[in-house]
Amino acid sequence: MRHGKKFNHLSRKKGHRRALLANMACSLIEHKRIRTTLAKAKALKKYVEPLVTKSRANTTHSRRVVFSYLQNKDAVKELFGPVSATVGDRPGGYTRVIRTGFRPSDSAEMALIEFVDFNSIYSNEKEGKEQRRRTRRGRRRRGAGEDATGASAATATTLASAEEE
Fold first, then answer.
1. pLDDT category, 144, cuts 50, 70, 90?
2. What order do you get walking across the sheet with 95-102 strand by strand?
3. Considering the entire predicted model, what is its pTM?
4. Contact, 70 vs 81, CB < 8 A?
């Protein structure tokens, strides 16, 4: 039993695990979201987030360090381009893991891992038209000079004088 386990070994040896995570990271950077098992998604999150943090500083050294992890020029170019421009202003938490249920064949728990700011469904920005706030009842609030019927004090005196005549 491995007591002080720091990360999930994913039932692979070091070289196989490193290649797996590098390939999955390249796919995530290229497609912005991928579907995989929950264990691999959690391991990939720990692998990718420091790389995105490195990509915030666009220097030759940081590009070389990221390339040593990914071994893919196109993925490095994409990471330092649109991905760091969109996600880089966040203080951390660049990826999101969403559980999607179980795989039918072997009942492995599946998950969707994606970059946070590339999903338009979860974004807080309002697109298109502005929505009006709705209340449950369509009543209007009474002003300072209105009575219970909603008429102002001036109209109430006018109505009272009209009734007297």
1. low
2. 33-37, 109-115, 95-102
3. 0.72
4. no
